[in-house]
Structure formats: C-alpha cells, structure tokens
Protein 1
Amino acid sequence: MNVNQAISGFAKLLKPNGTLAIWFYGRPAFADASQQQSQLIVNRILSKAWDRVRPMKGTGFEPAKIMLCAFLDNVPFPAEDWKQVRRLKWNYDMPMMFLEDDDVDFEIKWDSQVREGESQEKFIDRGFWLIDADVEWMRGFVDYALPWENKDEEKAQSDGLFKELEHSMGGKDKKQKITWPVALLLATKK
C-alpha cells in the first residue's frame, strides 16, 4: 500500500471536520514479566510462521513491517488537508512488529512524519486490552493470523514449539495475561 496515496484518498473522501482513525496492534505480549521465556517461545513461533512469506525484501510486507516498527510515525498528515492530529501509543516499549528485527531481510529505517503541533500521547499500561489466554488461544491466534502450511514437517515443528510454550505457560489449561502494543492515529479533515 502506498501510504501517501491512501492519506490523500482519505482526505478526498472525508467531509470537512470528519475524523480519520487508523489503528494497528502488534504481537501479543505477556503482561507478566515472569513469562519472559513464554514470550521468547511465542516470538520463535511467529518467526517460524512467517517463513512461508520469505523473502520479504521488495514485497508489500517490507513497507508494512517498517510501518509497524515506526508505530505508524511514518504516516504523513499534510498540513493543507489535516488538523488536530493525535498519535496515541499504548505499550510502546514493546515491539509492534510480529518479527524480531533480525528476522527480516531488509533494513528497518524510516523518516518520521510527525509534524510540529501534532499531539503525541504515549502510555505504558499492561492492563490495556488485557485478555486471559492459554496455549490453545495462542495457537488459534497464530493459525488465524499466519496460517501454517499443511506440510507434515512444518506441523511437527509448530506442534513442538506449542508444546514447549504449554510447558512454559504452566500447563495445558493454565491461562496467562496477554496485552498488546497498539497505535491509534486520529486526524480531522480541514
């Protein structure tokens, strides 16, 4: 997606004083710091699930991943079209991207498009958008967001990783608190 074209298109669609809202959430994160090992396993699971779309360099995944790393700060709101721009970030100390930086085959860099006068609000709130999840919930999330190929070898690998996660989380039915990094952009059409 060309973000400049999208923002220009939204400016044409909205009536004056209409509000544009853009949001995205990142990878699920364990709210409890004692679940650091579980988080590392989830990160490995997500990395493995992304194997099916590698290489990413030069594809639509590249700008999307950069946008997540930037917490959407590379989304421009030209002053001639937009006013009252607010950039809100929850749990901004957690990565938005579903992959680790070294899991991608391109350089992660961006130019901030935050203009003077835009509101930037940042919150660290591990209770924000909090859910209780067990290993089956996590499997369902990963399978829905990044479906595995139906190859026996890949299924065996994913099953092994989820078994490792189950043990780390405290057992099959043990639930842990999951939160999310979230970015929300609000802008009013002039």
Note: Residues 56 and 62 are 6 Å apart (CA to CA).
Protein 2
Amino acid sequence: MAPSSSIVAKIKVQLKLAISRLRMVQQKDTAIAKQQRRAMAQLLEQGKEESARIRVENIIRSDIDTELLEILELYCELLLARTGLLEGKDCDAGLEEAVKSIIHAAPRTEVKELQQTRQLLVEKYGKEFALKAMENSDGKVAERVIKKLEVKPPDPDLVTLYLKEIARTYGVNWPKGEATPDGPSDDDDEPSAGQGIKVLEDPLTTDELTKATPPRDLGPRSPVSVAPPSPSTDNISPRVRLPAPPDLKPSAKIGGLKKQTPSTEAKSNAKDTESGGKKNAVGGKIPDVDELAKRFAALKK
C-alpha cells in the first residue's frame, strides 16, 4: 500500500482535473438542452403535443444529470479545500458525506476523471468503507444525490410545467387560449395579416405626471445586485424574494426634541433677543455715507 501522503497528493491532482472536466460537461449539456428546447417549441407550435410530451422527458433527464454533476463538483471542491483532513487514516466526519457520495455516484457518470478520483478514495479508505458507501448502509450518502440517481418516469405535472415554460420562453401560444405576454412580439414595421392594431392610450396630464412614481432604474444603480437562481427540476420558475425594510424608530434625542414645550421655545427666543440686543448695544450700527460726511464736517470746524 502506498504511503498516505502520496495518495493524498494524487487525490488533490485528480480532484482538480475532475472539477475542470465536470464544468466542461455541464456547459456542453446546457448547450444541447437549449437546442432541444427550441425543437420542443417548434413541435408545440405545429400542434404535435404528444410527440413533445415524449421528447421532453429527455430534457428532464438531461437536466437531472446536469444537476447531479453540479452537486458532485461541489463535493470535489469541498475535498480540495479540506485536503489537510485527508491525511488521517480514518475518514473525517466533515468529509464523510462528500467522500461517500462521490464513491456512490461516480460509476453512474461518464466522467473518467471523477471515476479515477473514486478509485483513489477507495484505495485510501479501504474496500469495506467503499462497500458501505455503495450500499448506503449507514445513510451517509447525500439524499439529493440518491434522488438524482433514481430511474423513474417524470411526473406528468413536471412534464406540463416544462412544456409551459418552453412555450413561454419561445412565445408559443400553448395551451391554446392562454396569452404569452413574455414571448417575442412581431415587428411593427411588417405586421402580419389579420394582426390587430394596438390602441394608444391618452397622454397623461400635468397633475398625473406630478403624482407619478419615478422609475426604479432612474439615477445611479446600486453596486449590490441579487441574481435570480437558475431554474431546476425542483423549481422550474424561481423567483427572488427580498425581505421587507426594517421599521425605523426615532432615537431618544429626537424624541426629546419633538416633545419640547412652547414655554421652553419662548424662553430660548427671549434669550436670543436679549443676546442680540447686547450685541447691538456694544457694537452699534454701521454708519452710512451721509452720517460720515456730517462727522467730518464737524471735525473741520
């Protein structure tokens, strides 16, 4: 058996190769899925709903496989970040889920670098450890990994949601009778035959413009932005929900200023007038030009 340090070094190199390969496979599968979605939209537009329902199952299976590869990539990154914990003879509790999930799921993928990583992990922790991971006898394999590896036909509701999302994305009116507001619109310069002309609304008056709320994108944008999560088989149309702003309460100083009585305000005004009178008595007013001329004439006499 090879020394532990040499095996850990090999695992570290193989993890980097596996991460790079997993990302490339995900990008390739995503590009193929886009082409398949476009083909599904054409089938829906042609009215071939039954054919679209059968073929969309391949898209769902491809999305599930892509999500599985994403999970395994995260586990590889976790092991790469905690390679120091691999030096021990026994598997650390913080790495057990990641290690056993990779051993359990790697044979079901076509990524050779991930399978070689699995072989090194089996060599590191022994066949008994690998047998427990393959059978999941101790329940340490991640539940989401087991769920992605299940081979079963997709739920009919999930198929319908996929078809609706594809139709909405590519502007196809499906099911018939439902509007597609988010779909692409026809060019105004070349309207199709029988297309209705949009009725223009009356212009807003001055009073309505003054009451109107300015658009949110007016002025400088915030450097902090929240990107919406990517759709998955568990959530086809994700949405971003921001928390409500906190209730701001006035501090004790501001509350004390607001509770100031009229008598205290009158006293402060009296003090100001009194101090102003003293200033005028000491400094006096600035004489104008005519008064200065009279003073010079009196001095000459």
Note: The longest helix spans residues 4-45.
Protein 3
Amino acid sequence: MTDAFKSTELFGGAIVANLPAGYGDVSNIREVPDHQEIYLDASGFSSIVIEIAERVTDPSADNEALKFHFEDIVDEQDTGRIWRTDVAHLPHFPPNTPCLSLLATTHPQPATNGNTRALTPNFVAVLLTMIRLEPQSTDLIVTVNIPHIPGHQEPTDDEVDIEVGKLGSLVEEGVKIRDEVLRTLEIKDWGLFDGGKEDEV
C-alpha cells in the first residue's frame, strides 16, 4: 500500500506533483520521450505516466477527446472498455480548467516473441485524466496503470468486478494515487508549453 508521497519535479521542474515515494523515474534506466515522464513502482508493476499531448480538436467535445486519448494508448491487439468517467478537480490550476477522468480496462494479448517468461496481465486497469489547456493548445494527460498479473499480485480475480463497482485493493490504491497527483499537480513554468501563458484569473 502507498502511504508515503513526495513532491517530485517533472519536466525539469516546470511541473511538480506528489508521487508515491516507492516509484522510480524510468528515465534512469531507459530512454523516455521528452513529452513524457514515467514512474514505475519499484516493488510492483503499476506505473504513472504524465504526458504533454497536442490538444485534440476533432472531436472537440471534452468527453470525446477523453475517449480519443484512451484509445491512443491502447494497442491494436488489446481490447479496451471504459467503465466510467468523472469530472476531476485541480486546486492549483486556473478556475474552470476542464478536467475529466476515466476508469477503463484493457486486456493485453500474450507475448508472441517467444518469450514464455513474459508476464501477461489478465487485465490492466487504467485511470486516465485529461487536463485541457486550451490557450496552450495542449491536453495534459495523467495516467495510472495497474496491471493484474496472476500469481504475482493480490487480489485474485474473484475479488474484482469493476462492472459492479468492486474495484479490489490494487485499483483502489491506484485511485488514491491519482487523486493525490491531481490534488498537488501544479505548473510552475507555463513556458513549458511552447511559450504559452497562464490563463488570466
């Protein structure tokens, strides 16, 4: 369980947020694209991805843009389903900044590269939040990924039924992480977005 969080500088300090203390910066072990920050649970399989994405204008409706961003991260061979969407709140952003979150699941296909030792989750719970920064022509995406890998994690499958709201301890932990990230997420340097300026308050 994640009880400790620490203030973490992202994108060279242009953004800060509280992340779980037990999560490590993936860029220390492999290359990560400049528009992403990825942190991985050192004692598990969950991850947090913060991504600076181009603002989706087609479709222009916020709920459809949220669906677009989810579909963009799902592999073609995976099957994904969105279970619910909610309005999220951002204490450190300009008033009326659109922010939507979704809870979804994907079902990755087993590895086909001959690596029989590869761990294939039964499913991955995805908590994706889209923050719409219209003046910066940007959608800021915060994603918490929670793989459910048989034999390596609790709870067991019969303890999870997302359709009826039975999330299980792993997804509940992911919700806690997402909420803490959003509660503390703050942009320190709006110049990160190609010189864009903060909305007037």
Note: The mean pLDDT is 87.
